[in-house]
Amino acid sequence: MKKYVIGITALCLAGCSTAAPESTAAVSTVPAQAESVWSHDPDMDFDSASDLTPFKYMMVSASTTAFGNVTLYLETEKTGYPGEWDSTGYAGDAMIVEKNNNQGIYTHDGTELYPVSVNKVSTPYIAGIVTGVWKSSDTQSSIVYGFANTATSKAQIFSKDFKSVTEVSLDTFNYDLKTTDRDPYLAYKGDELGVAGMTYSSSGAMSGWAFEKYTPADVKANLIVPVINEQFTTTGYVILASDGSKIVDVSTDMKYRQGSYVNDCYVISDGTYATIVDAGSGGNIATQYQDAKYFEDGYAPVKKSGKWGYIDRTGKEVTDFIFDDACTVYNGYAWVYYHGKYGIINLSDALNDSEKQVNAYWCSPVTEDKIGTLTVKVTDLTIRKGASKESTQTGVCMEGSVYPVFEKKTDENYTWYRINESEWTASEGTWAVFEEAK
Questions:
Q1: What gap in Å lies between CA 372 and CA 434, rounded to an integer?
Q2: CA quadruple 211, 215, 217, 221: dihedral positive or negative?
Q3: Is 176 exposed, middle or buried (0-12, 13-18, 19+ CB in 10 A)?
Q4: 363 — alpha (psi -120 to 50), left (phi > 0) or beta?
Q5: Among 1, 186, 348, 400, which is 20 to 30 Å from 171 by CA?
Q6: Are residues 148 and 285 in the same domain?
Q7: pTM, 2 dp
């Protein structure tokens, strides 16, 4: 009889804050199995899981001749984890989970911080859990996470550990900051850094575009800045050091994905394919995936053939592409959506274990006698639900993956190998090497 032996680490899923609504999350007490790659079994019934939404900009006050005193919204390189970006002081180990349009905050190892109770679509609420600028006094503003209720004209601001909220006036929480292309902004024009924007006459009428040389003070991070021409049209982007000196031009054959400059890399896309680029050298790390997220802890989720997997900083694929969603990594932990539920893999531990691989077998191990092993020798070898090329595709093997084989079938074109309880892959002779069990 086939039997699953997926393990699970006992996790505290109970809310810890007295200010948080009462949690209904269950606590798992099943001991972990040594054979499993899962830190938490794929049994969490959320609709989505994702990183915290970071604040888009760094705000800098500037005194200019052409525009007067203005606030510039800069895009800087993000380092670390989203909760820590832009010196917000929030816990880095936090992410948003969602079920039936209600959101909550969990840690990356599966512990609940704030219950799934923030409704993001019903009439009184706006946008769910967001980040914005909270003006606590006439002179002091800070970047915070919270949610708003228009019916009461109140906002709820999260504590730095996300375990409780504080009620504030809605008009002090700017969660929907908007800028236009006519507002003054930092730009790179003719190899000079400065402020560009529309100027206005004393009567308030637009009087034309202007550019004034300017380098922001007190900015420590690298900047990514639009490049403009004489007509003030954006023609690309450039990466600059904090002193305004150029590091490298951003590739212009694909569009830069705003907000993707994280931990020394950024993402470009043509709308169909995404590529991760090393920001220092301008060289591609991962090329033409269907989608890509950013690197954390040395790994990035990327998508191909409709499924997600992970690559390392060299661009090497280190897992099979078998997940319907994959989150960025925190302290080794990676949330993935597998067979209709979210689970957590300690990716670093699994990849450092010479006897384990994050592939279609290790994510669904079975206890039945194997007839041999199969070593994949090519990229993009398809995994299917049945031993037929017409069968539904469920994933893609990574090159070098090794599977136990439990059953073998041959048709006129391929030899099919069952690599777990219900999934098959095939070889025409050279795609994979089968070795019989001794």
A1: 7
A2: positive
A3: exposed
A4: alpha
A5: 186
A6: no
A7: 0.87
